[in-house]
Structure formats: structure tokens, C-alpha cells
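Please describe our next protein:
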Amino acid sequence: MDCTDDGSKDLCEKFGVTGYPTIKYFADGDADGKDYQGGRDIDSLKAHVEEHLQVQCDANDPGEGCSDKEKAYIEKMKAKTEAEQQAQLERLTKMQGSSMKAELKQWLSQRLRILNGLGKSSQEL
């Protein structure tokens, strides 16, 4: 977006965009976005997406892409009723804006992805 355009200035200020070019990315429910600091070539951008943005674990097919911790959580949640899964989803969603260590925030996001993915095909996600 063009941050010199009057129609975009508010959005640029909201996300702290002060120079050109600025690349922001939004991962794991982060509403504020993070500044991308990597290389601008296609290989660097692709590596960043694969490492930080690409969902690796499919809740309906917990194969190689899922850690043991994720697999255990998937099994635990599959054993619960739909109402219990929904209650857990609501609880975790409320926690998203809370201040927490990066590892906990990442685990929160992983659990949200799993809960949102249960019962859905990969094309629905």
C-alpha cells in the first residue's frame, strides 16, 4: 500500500509503517504484525514463509508434520465432545491478546489451529 496516500495513512500509522519498502507479516493470530527483516529475494521470502507461516500439522492427518506434543493434543481433543472442543476454542481465543512468552504464544496458536481444523478437510482451512 502507498503510505503517502491520505486514504492509507491511518492504517500505516496503526501498523508502524514509516518507510518504504516495509514488509509486515501476521502469524499465529498476531493482530499487530511483525516486521520482516530477512532478504528480499524469492528464496529468502520462501524460506521465511515455510519456517514461520506455513501450517505444518493437519489435525485430521497427524503424520510427519505434527510434533508428538501436537499429536497428543489432537488425540485428547478428538476424545472430547463438540461442545467441549468449542468451549476450549473459546477459552484459548480469549487468551490470544494476553501477554505471554513466545513459546507459550506459539503453543496457543498451534492449539487454536488444531481445534479449528478438527473435522475439516485441508481444502476448507
In short: The first helix runs from residue 9 to 14.
